[in-house]
Write a structure and sequence with these properties.
By secondary structure, the protein is mainly alpha-helical. The protein has one domain (about 10-180). Helix content is about 65%, strand content about 5%. The chain contains 5 helices and 2 strands, in the order αααββαα. It has helices at about 10-35, 45-70, 85-115, 135-170, 175-180, and strands at about 120, 125-130. The radius of gyration is 19 Å and the shape is elongated. The N and C termini lie close together (about 10 Å). It is found in: Cell membrane.
C-alpha cells in the first residue's frame, strides 16, 4: 500500500488518520456524554475529564496534521458509479462541516478546560497553558457550544457513515472501499 494518495485511492496515512480520529472522536462523544452525569464521589468523576481533555489536545494536533496532509496530497477523483453528481458537492460540504464542527469542539473544549485559569495537563507529558483569565461565564457559554457542536458532529458522522454505505451498496462504487485500503 502506498503512503500518499493518488488520483484513484487514499494512501495509508490518510486512511490511518481517518480511522484513528473516527474511532477516538466517537469514543470521546460517548465518554463526554457519560462523564457529565457522574456524581462528585464517583471514582471516574476526576479521571474521565482529565483523559477527555488530554485526548482532546492530542486530537487537536492530529487535526492539524490531517489538514496539512489533506492539502499536501492529491485528492482521489470522485468514485465512478451511479451516484448523482450532486453527491460530490454534498460530500465536500459534509467534510467541511465535520472539520468545522471538530474545530468548534476543540476550541470550546479548550475554553471550558481553561476557564478556571488552569492549563490542560496532557498525560504529564506537557501542559497547554490557559491563555485567558478565569471566567465562569466563558465556562458556561463554551460548555453549551461544546455540547451542541458535539451533538451536531455525531449526527453528521452518522450521515457520513450512511452515505458511505449508500455509495457501497446502492450505487456500487468504491467510495467506501478506498477508505478501507481496498479500492
Amino acid at each position: 500500500m502506498q503512503i500518499g494518495n493518488s488520483e484513484k485511492t487514499y494512501g495509508v496515512v490518510s486512511i490511518a488518520l481517518h480511522w484513528v480520529m473516527a474511532v477516538v472522536l466517537i469514543g470521546m462523544y460517548f465518554i463526554g456524554d457519560y462523564m457529565v452525569e457522574l456524581e462528585y464521589y464517583d471514582a471516574l468523576y476526576h479521571t474521565l475529564p482529565k483523559w477527555h481533555k488530554a485526548v482532546g489536545v492530542i486530537l487537536g494536533g492530529l487535526l492539524l496534521m490531517r489538514l496539512a496532509w489533506v492539502y499536501a496530497q492529491p485528492r482521489p477523483l470522485p468514485a465512478s458509479g451511479h451516484a448523482p453528481k450532486l453527491t460530490h458537492l454534498l460530500g465536500k460540504l459534509g467534510h467541511l462541516a465535520l472539520y468545522g464542527l471538530l474545530t468548534i469542539m476543540l476550541i470550546s473544549g479548550y475554553l471550558i478546560s481553561t476557564a478556571k485559569g488552569h492549563g490542560i495537563n496532557v498525560f504529564d507529558w506537557f501542559e497547554v497553558p490557559a491563555l485567558l483569565p478565569q471566567s465562569k461565564e466563558r465556562d458556561e457559554l463554551a460548555g453549551d457550544i461544546h455540547e451542541i457542536a458535539g451533538i451536531l458532529f455525531i449526527l453528521l458522522v452518522g450521515v457520513h457513515a450512511l452515505a458511505a454505505f449508500i455509495h457501497h451498496f446502492y450505487w456500487k462504487d468504491n467510495t467506501l472501499t478506498r477508505m478501507l485500503g481496498k479500492g
